[in-house]
Specification:
Helix 7 runs parallel beside helix 10, helix 8 runs parallel beside helix 11 and helix 11 runs parallel beside helix 13. The protein is mainly alpha-helical.
Length: 320
Amino acid sequence: MTTRDFVEQLAKSDEEPKFSQLLQLADLETDQIGEFKSAWPSVPEARRRQVVESLLEISEENLEMDFTDVFVACLSDDDDEVREAATRGLSTCENRTVIRPLVALLNDDTSVPVRAAAAMALSNFAAMALDGKLITRDEDRIRVALMATIEREDEFLEVKRRAIETVARLRPPGIVEIIEDAFDSGSLELKQSAIYAMGQTSSEEWLPVVLEEMQHESPAIRFEAANSVGLLGDEGIVPELTELLEDDDLEVRLAAVKALGIVGGPMAKRVLQACLNYDDETLEEAAKAALEHVEFDNDPLGLDLDTDTDPDADEEDEDE
């Protein structure tokens, strides 16, 4: 069955397509992309939404499945929800040809959710720029678009906060003032984004701030603070993260577990191992994943090195 035939079948059928059928839309060749674009507008709006959301779900669960070409084609869909879902589908994309259309959406789309999704989708490219994996022209295009969004006085809150979160990775001139303004704005949402951005800068100057915000009355603030502490701190902040394991909010507890995995070291490892005995299956699974992260950092080559040696035990052995 050709791609055109499959899409036309989607338009005519009353039955929801199975995931196995949608795999036909992965890794399309150039001629297949053309067939998809030609037939896609004939698919009813509700079905288009359903298909793109399903592709997004498949791609999140199966990283080897690549629907990039379909997502890019759907960026020009007439329906806001289809464009938003397609934009979210590009959040892990590393193909630099996607940067220009994402910037265009951020600058010009009529839908606030689509523009916010575009700002978030650019985050992965910002990380690539930080690692030297983007040419300067692409990095400049991303930074200019994000800064223009942040500086626009009548910008929508959701778009602005997502732009702040992403541009923090690029650490442009003025980022400290941008974060401080968002933090002190009086908006809980902007404060969340400011704390998130603090972590993305990798600047230890923000560590005292995020440590203090781990005690905030809002679970959303404590959640962002825990995540940022994991990116900014070292083993010295393990006691503070350990306290969050008793937080009333599950998402905050899970953020603390994840942060412990990022911080690593013998102390964090012992705390995570203790989490395996908690009567909380969700927390236990998160602790297992965090421990795997710790083990990988300790022994990335899989040489089975003994990296959890207790210095005090060594001293005791010498005394004997």
